[in-house]
Amino acid sequence: MDLMLKTRMRDHVQLFWERTQDEEIKRLFPFSIESMEQAFILFEESLKEDASSYGKVIYFEGRYVGDIWCYGIDESNEKMAMLSAVIFEKALWGKGIATVAVKVFLKEVFNKYDIEKIGAFTYSNNHGSIGLLEKTGFEKIETFVEDGIESIYFEIQDAG
């Protein structure tokens, strides 16, 4: 598969923001960023040496198609981080792109940070994300309702 994870740049942030304003994408993914300005601020924070987030962009067949990142990186207390991955090119959903990206990214994050596990949330109606998490080794921990939306929390332990 012609897939690469590349360094996230400022122009990626803007394009990601624009592409994820799609109503179907917004229904499936729990985004917390409410403006492009906020997205730029968080991107700048991620560049700092002591950043608690780390991300890459996903390129498929030479084209930028999504983002993958960890946030809430805690190397001292809980020794964990949270994962998020979004393919915004909907025509590419279900093609295994996110599965390959997550597998590569997990290895990188577990090697880069002193963490023991990674968690991930998804809405219960996002069957694609549920399948992705299960295929990449995440285990379902709990189901809960937040803001009236049923969600599932998953975790994966560092196998290294």
Write the topology of this structure:
Blueprint: E1 3-7, H1 10-19, H2 23-28, H3 36-46, E2 54-60, E3 63-74, E4 80-87, H4 97-112, E5 117-123, H5 127-135, E6 139-146, E7 149-157
Parallel strand pairs: 4-5
Antiparallel strand pairs: 1-2, 2-3, 3-4, 5-7, 6-7
Describe this structure in words.
The chain is of the alpha+beta class and about 160 residues long. The protein has five helices and seven strands; from the N terminus they run βαααβββαβαββ. The chain has helices spanning about 10-20, 25-30, 35-45, 95-110, 125-135; strands at about 5, 55-60, 65-75, 80-85, 115-125, 140-145, 150-155. The protein has a seven-stranded mixed sheet with strand order 1-2-3-4-5-7-6, covered by helices on one side. Strand 3 (about 65-75) and strand 4 form a beta hairpin. Helix 1 packs antiparallel against helix 3. It is globular. The two termini are about 25 Å apart. The mean pLDDT is about 95.
Structural class: alpha+beta
Q: Which H/E pattern describes the elements?
A: EHHHEEEHEHEE
Total strand segments: 7
Distance between the termini: 25 Å
* Oligomer classification: single chain
Task: Please state the average pLDDT score.
Answer: 94
Helix content: 25-40%
Report the uncertain regions.
Answer: none
Spatially, the strands of the biggest sheet line up as: 1-2-3-4-5-7-6
Shape summary: globular
Largest sheet: 7 strands, mixed
Quickly count the helices. 5
Binned strand content = 35-45%
